[in-house]
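Quick note —
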Amino acid sequence: QVQLAESGGGLVQAGGSLRLSCAASGRTLSSYVMGWFRQAPGKEREFVAAISRNGDSTRYEDSVKGRFTISRDNAKNTVYLQMNSLKAEDTAVYLCARRRTGWAEGDVKQTSEYGYWGQGTQVTVSS
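Predicted structure written out below.
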């Protein structure tokens, strides 16, 4: 059993930055593709970014490309999401998740392909 815990959220002005962390306990993350998703009130959960097991491949949702960076430190069992140039529309609960399958399989954007989820951390961007 793995437990994922996000941290680093908060209130920031538009144009600011935040760094989210996702720490795992119970099982190592190094064997898994990891993803970040977000969910705004009244909206469906949407993909933000994903990273391969060793970190050499990443994928981003179009609206965050060039502003967000996903990374991982397998020695620390932690995945990060650096968010720069934040916009009001980035306001949401951000959740990390562990994918069931490998990088080349299926579609990393699909929530159904992730088996474990954290509780999320709130990010609020004021305009």
